[in-house]
Structure formats: structure tokens, C-alpha cells
Amino acid sequence: MDAYLIALASFGLIYLLLVVGLNLQYGFAGLTNFGVVGFYALGAYTSAILATRGVPVPLALAGAMLVAMVPAFLLGLLSLRLRDDYLAVVTLGFAELVKLVVTNEAWLTRGPHGIPDIPPLVDAALSPDLRPAVELGVLLLVNAVALYAIWRIVRSPFGRAIFAIREDETAVTALGKDPLGFKIKAFMIGAALAGLAGGLQAHHLSYISPEQFLPILTFYVWIAVLIGGVGTLSGTVVGTAILILLLEGSRFLRDLIPGVSETDLASARLMIVGLAIVVVTIHRPEGIMGRTAK
Amino acid sequence: MVHLSRRRFAASIASLAASTAFLPRFAGAQAPEFRIGALCPITGAGAQYGAGMQRAIQFAANQVNAAGGAAGRQLRVFTEDDQTQPEAGVLAAKKLIEVNQVQAVVGTWASGVTLAVIPMAVRANVLAMNVSGAPDISALHNDGMSWRFHPTNAEFGKAFAAVCAKQGYKRPALMGFNNAFGLGLTGGFQAAWEKGGGTIAGRVIYEPRRPSYRGEVQEILRAKPDVIVMGSYLADTTLIMREAFQEGYEGRWIMPGWSANDQLVAALGPQATEGVISMDTIPNEGSGAFKSFDDEYKRAMNVSGASNVFAAMSYDMVISLALALEAAGPSASPREIGQKMRLVANPDGTKVYGFAEGKDALKRGKINYEGASGALDFDEFGDVKGNFLMSVIEKGRLVRKDVVAG
Amino acid sequence: MDIVFIANLVVAGIVEGSLIALAALAMTLVFGVARFPNAATGDFMAFGAYAALMAYATAGLPIWLAAAIAIAATALLALVSYRFVFSKLLNRSPVANLLASIGVALIIRSALSWYFGSAQRTFSFPLVRSMNLGGIRIHPTDLAVVGVALAAMLVVFTLLYVTPLGRRMRAVADNPLLARASGIRSAYVMVALWLIAGGVSALAGVLLGVKAIVTPEMGFDVLLHIFTATVLGGIGNPLGAVVGGLVIGIAQELASPIVGASYKLAVGFVVLVALLLVRPQGLFGGAEVTR
Asked: Does chain A have fewer CB atoms within 10 Å around its N or its C terminus?
């Protein structure tokens, strides 16, 4: 049981980075990024490709963050000219493009065969019994650093500026700040976090393939941001926890209710996720940890 | 090892304490149940096959239990959905192993899921059985803890090439689904074909889930093939064959059995499917194993068992596992059970076609389980070896024609 | 690369493009009036396809009647989703509505896969060969698909541009506040909108199901193309959506000999980004101020 809980917590912590990244982009800067899974995949592949060619894992992870920031910069530039809903569609398309590239550039990514034997997050010489726990520790540390850094950013003049953009773009411009630059930076930092999450996942799983990077993951991250509370850091943690509960908790449903087939359960899981989104958007617009209605 | 099992024992006490509320246990002196995790693709790309696989695992376990269990132990199946996704598959496998305390995880379908699950299962001293085709998996199959019930993708391609050569085709064109299976099969075909001195007329790798493949079909037909070799699944095959027929293609087709089946004929009718060559691992259609699988499968899923070869393989996983358990004895560890797999499945023993029969024959010596999905003989990598059956669709019915060495 | 081959690619592109166009028309109507990209469009399509399949294969009705039943059933479903979900989000951001529509999409899809399973189904029409016009092959089913799609578009355009209802809808689309001030009851417009969007989606789904196969994911699988076509044409512009769909369908097929069968799927996206760099409001979108 404890090993399962460790696996679950590791999974949740990797998601948490994605949720924090998106919450910075949408919650603080109002960017409708529907391509989360694209940045995540870029990070996973960058880190895996570097590490399997002998680059030390920490450096490979740094590479993952850098590579994920490049398209974020370009999309950020484009986003300045677009309405929110246009940006949503463009980023959705970007994620599909990433998937096509990792599927088809087999010389680099091994295509649909995926990349096996990715070096683990922690020393491979470590006893297999200990490794998951140590990995969990590393993930906790990474998340703590990331959350602290975001907290600092949000508190900084920069953070207050992006927050202001969300509230009123023209007012900020009038004050002589440059909201566009802030937006791009927020987009890039969020993408770097998604890239880092992807890299961590690659080392954690030891195997990645294009099939892992489906658009549904983006929706899951959005659900966590919404449920937890847009624009709050505590909300990201709560939202992620609830998401994991929704996704994994249903596994235990069947142990409790005998006679439910796995097929029914899969439908039920999708139904529950769908209902959760609808109910939360209607009844709890600010999320669970969000500021109460304005 | 002793240390490990004590740790696992302690863990199991802890988790049982947490789960007794909903896990009925057998009372008294009876041998403990043997727990199997059925980890199949219920959603995602494998969804067409996963539900049937899981049902097959369940009714195979029921058959074993009805025959008094294996080595006196009742089998108990816990089901999970791997979502055809490595990430979800790993979490589901972790849950099966840690929470449900299973000793075998069977039924992974996608190569990605299998590649991610095997190392984890082996680390936890749990048997793993799959129906995946990626060659990379063989490297993980080396210590008797993991077993593959499906020929590799490349071997499939090689067998296809042998059939095309025998049929006298000159201009094969390849169409492959853009995944490990489609690439592996078409690649295996091309390698074998070119080794035999032939050339490939054309090759298209296509993306899944498209509303139409007309452009791809046009490109392939421009190569004027006399046979189209498909590394495909049912849904895409339905579209591609329909559009090729509309485009006026008159040549032949060769494809795996899970594409060329009753459902394909139902979708396209007998005219368009006439002469399609279907390649499969040999189902022992005349034998007891296939019949008892097929009867149950029809009852459970309302379609013929021949339409889902992965379900037949999953059925065989449970039967062969139970026979190995019977041979290894009630207190055997998963590793000790794994070591008996070849003893109950490979040649030289008495041929048996079901659990009850095998259990009986084991009392007298070695047995050789001939499964519902094939002869089920494992090589040194734990990969199933065997021959392929070539069938041809004639007037809407699959007719067996030939056996091709794998 | 001969001209006949190219002509055949264009034909293939027109057929796929008109399916995308019809679905994009449904999406852009919602986009224009209710102001969000409706991610449930694809699942309305799948629902329509299953409804028609039930009526056709199970109840044995003729296909046109089955399609009519599917249109009615899906229009009703769309109305229900408006009544219980979108009507409660009228004053909320497009993103909130988009997310809710993803929720609605998942609910519909889970119900379909629970009831029908994930095995493929087909409208088993007898197969016939295509007509060969000097090497250019035209298939009767494709002709019917394109014909019905065009006819449906015509009906919708007539509705929009000739009837009083259409005028009201366009007024709301152009300026909701002004429309309200001039006494247009937006609730009535909304009901009409969702009925039309549901019906058009259903028809697109039936056509897709007839041409391809029916699965619970069939609509979701083409959703990205529908989104792209909608944005390409300029959100809320019906003519733009139709043109956008055709452009994507044709560009994709024409590109496939050059970039291959995989990357052709990215052609729509590339065209979209290139266009948005020049015209951020899309092909036909007016220079609309951001909300």
C-alpha cells in the first residue's frame, strides 16, 4: 500500500507542476493555454533524448525547461494579437503539432517505438526498494522550490503587474508598464514548468512514447486549476489533489461495489469528470480556494 | 528473497487491515487464493479488444476454479483499465500489486504499457504477461518473470512476406498504421521481401482516426500493386478497403486476423472482402481449448471468439499460468511458477487442451498445453513461437488455407 | 505529378472539407451568438450518428427518415445542454463556457460508450465502384455527402439571412447589448440557436458516419479540424466557417504528396497561424474589438 501511495504522490507532484504553470499563465496573466500537453511532451522528449545520450539528469531537465520556453515565446508573441478564444485554438493545434513531430521524427525520438531505458531521477545504483521514496523526496523538493519561486514572482512588482493585466489591461498600459512583455514572460515561465514536469515524468517512468501525450491531459490540468481556484497558489495544491482523487479514486469504487465491469467503470469515470467540470464552472466559478465572489 | 517476502507479508497485513471491509476472504485452513490482475486497454486505442480480453481472463479463472483451483488455490481476478497509456498503466499496475496484492499482472496490450509495466512488476516479484508486439520487449523477458503471448511485429511481417512469395505476388505495397505495430509489421515485411530479392511497389504510413483515407489510398494505388499488405486495425481497415474498392482496386489484400474478421465482412459485405488473406496465430479451432474459449466468449460478448485473438491469448495466459501453478505447488513463489511455464506449455509433454485435462495429466508427467490462440511454445526470451495460419475470406466466410512457419 | 492525380486529391479534399465545413458552421453559429467555442460539437455529431444508426439499422427506417430523427433528437439534446448548463453561464467568460462545453462533451461521450460500447458500427450500404470521369473518380456516396452538406448550408444561410429569426440572431451576434436594447428577446434567440446548432451537428455526424464508421470518439477525432476551420474563417462568420472547412480539407490533401500522410494533418494549423499573423481576426472576421 505504501508503495502505491508513493507512486500516487509522485504522479500528483508531477501534475502539480503543470497546474502551477497553467495557473500562472491563466490565473495571473489571463492566457488561455490549451496546449499544456505539448509543452509537457517537449520537456519529456528533450530530457529523455539528452539523458539517454549521456547528459546528467539535472542538466537534461534544465534543457527540457529551455526547449519548452522557445515555442512559448513564439506563441506568446502571437497571443498578443489574438483574442482568448483564438489563442485557445492555436495552442490546441500546437500540442497536436508536437505530437506529430515526436511521432514522425524517428531519427531523434524513435517515433512510435518510444524511448526506453531513460536514466532514473536518482542514482540508478540505489536499491530498488528505496528508489521510489527518494524520488518522491526529489519531486517534493522540486515542487517546493517551484512554488516558492512562483510565490515570489506573484508578490514581486512583476507579479502585481501581471495580475493587474488580468484585471484591466488598458489601465496598466496607461501607467507606462508593458503588459505584453509580462504576458510573454508569464507564458514562458509556465511553459518551463510544464517542460520540467515532462522531464521529471520521463525519468520517473523510464519509458516515454507519443501515445502518452493526449489532449485529455490538458483538460485535466485545466480542471485542476478551475476546481482549486484560478489565481491562487493554495488552490493549485487542492485542485491537483482533487483531480488525482477523481482519476484514481474511481479504481477503488469497483472494489467497493461488486459487479461493476471495467467498461462501465471507464464510462463512469469519464462521466464523473465531465459532471465535475460542469458543476464547478456553474456553481463555484472561483474554485474551492478562490476568493469568494467579487 | 526471504527478506523481500517478509516485507511483502508485512505490507499485505497492513493493506488487508485497510481493505478487509470489502475483500471477502476464505476461511480456515484452505490454501490462500491466487490473485491475478487483469490489466487491459478498456479505453484508448485498444478499447476494441480490451473488454473482451478482460472477460476472457475472468471466465478462464472461473474454469480453473470450477476444476478445483490450481494446486488447491482458487484464482481471483482483479480488473483494471490501463487506458492504453503507459502512465495510467503503471499506476493501475501499482495499485494491483500493492493494494490488491496480485501475484501476476496479465493482459497488457500496447507495447508502451508493457514496456513500462514489466520492470515494475519484476521488481515487485510479480509475473507479467502481455500480448504486445514490440521487439524491445524481448530484452525484458529474460528471467522467466514476463511472458509474451503474441508474435513480434517483425515476425508477423516475415510471415506475410512468405505468403506473398508463395502466392506469386510481384508488386506488394505496404500500408501501415503509424504506431509500433504498423511500423514493425511493414518494416519486417520489407526486410524479408527485399532479402528474397523482391522490391516494394509503394509504402504509406497513415495516421489513426481519420475520417477518410482516400488520399493515402490513391497514393498506394498509383504504385499499381498486385497485393496490399496491411499493418492495420479494424477501424482503419474498414475505411481503407471501402475507399480502395470505390477507387476500383481489383488486387488482393493481406492483413492480420484482428482486421480481417466477421466485423469487417459485416461492414463491407462479401464482395469487397472476397479473397482477403487473413493471417493469424493458429487458433486451435478444432480443439477443446478454442471451443471452450469460444463458447464462453460468445456467451459473454455476443460475438465469435475468433474476432478477438487477443482475448484468446488472454484466456491462454490464465490457463497456462494455472497449470504452471499446479505444477509448482501451492506454496510456490511467482518466480517458481514462472519457471514452470515452459514445462507446461512447450513440446515433449502430453498435449492437453484445457485446465482440468492438464491438471489430471500433470500427475503423470510433463504436459504441453495447446492453447486457444496457438500452440503456445515459448522461446528463450519468453516470447511465444509458433506458426501462422493463413485464411482467405470466401463469400463472406473465413476459410483456412495454409500454415506458414513463423 | 499528373493533373488527374491532383484533381483526385482535390476531390478527396472537397469531400472531407465539406464535412468539416458543415460541423464548423454549427460551431461558428454558437461562437457568434453565445460567444464561445463549443467543444461538445464533436459529441453532438457522434450522438446524431448513433441516433440515425438506431433508427436505420435497428428500427429499419429509410436513411432520410433516420437522419431527420437524428437531427431532431440532437437538436433536443443541444437544447437540454443549453437549459441546464450554458444558460447558467451567459454572463461568464468564453473560457468558462469552453470548459463547461468540454464537460458536456465528456458526459455525452461517456453515455455513448457506456450504452453502445466502443466497437465500431457502420451504416452497411452496399458498396459500389466510383464513376470514372477521365481518371477523376467520383463516388455516389461522396456526391451525396457533399450535396446534402451543401443543401444544409443553404438552408441555414436562408434561415440566417432571409427570416426574421436569422436577423435577430445576427443582431445578437453583432452586438448583444444593442440587440437587447432594441427589444430582441435573447432567450428566444438562444433556444433557436441551440436547436439549429444541434441539428446541423447531427447532420454532419450522420454524413461522417455514413462515409466512415461510427464510434463514440468519431466527433472528438475531427474536433480540432472543426476548431481550426472556425477560427480560420473568422469566428462567428458562417460563410467563413464553410470556406475555412473547405480550405483545410483541400490544402491538407494537396499537401500530402509533399509532406506525407502524417504532417498533412498539421497543414490546417500552419495555414491558420500564417493567416492569423496577417489577419488576427480570421479570413472573414470583421475588425471586431475584443469583447
From this structure: C
Interface ipTM > 0.85: yes
Q: Which of C9, C19, C215 is nearest residue B215 as measured by Cβ atoms?
A: C9
The domain B153-280+387-404: what is its CATH number? 3.40.50.2300
Mean pLDDT of B243-258: 93
- Mean pLDDT lowest for which of A127-136, B8-17, B64-73, B135-144? B8-17
Amino acid at residue number C286? G
CATH topology of domain C3-278: ABC transporter involved in vitamin B12 uptake, BtuC (1.10.3470)
The strand pairing partners of C137, in sequence order, are C132
pLDDT tens-place string over residues B92-114: 999 999 999 999 999 999 988 99
Q: What is the Cα–Cα distance from B229 to B255, expressed in whole angstroms?
A: 6
Residue A92: the pLDDT is 94
3-state secondary structure of B277: strand
Residue of chain C minimizing CA distance to B271: C127
pLDDT at residue C48 in the model: 98
Q: How far is CA B30 from the centre of its chain?
A: 33
Interface check B269 vs C, CB under 8 A: yes
What phi and psi, each to the nearest 5 degrees, are found at residue B241? -65, -40
| Nearest chain C alpha carbon to B244 | C129
C228–A contact, CB cutoff 8 A: yes
**Among A20, A43, A31, which Cα is nearest to A153's?**
A20
- CA closest to C266 among chain B residues: B207
User: CA-to-CA distance for C261 and B236, rounded, in angstroms?
Assistant: 14
Determine whether the interchain pair A211/B45 forms a contact, defined as Cβ–Cβ distance below 8 Å: yes
Neighbours of C187 (CB within 10 A): 10
Q: How many helices (H) and strands (E) does chain B have?
A: 14, 16
| Other C-beta atoms lying within 10 Å of the C-beta of residue B37 | 28
User: Given this chain, do its domains B2-150+286-385 and B153-280+387-404 carry the same CATH topology?
Assistant: yes
Residue A170 has pLDDT above 80, yes or no: no
CATH tag, B2-150+286-385: 3.40.50.2300
The pLDDT, as a whole number, for residue C275 is 92
Measured between CB atoms, does B262 come within 8 Å of chain C?
no
* pLDDT value of residue A1: 66
Query: Is the pLDDT assigned to residue B40 strictly greater than 70?
Result: yes
Q: Where do the domains of chain B lie?
A: 2-150+286-385, 153-280+387-404
Cell 461568464 found at: C92
**CA distance readout (Å), C22 to B3, B275, C238, C261, C268:** 66, 38, 10, 24, 16
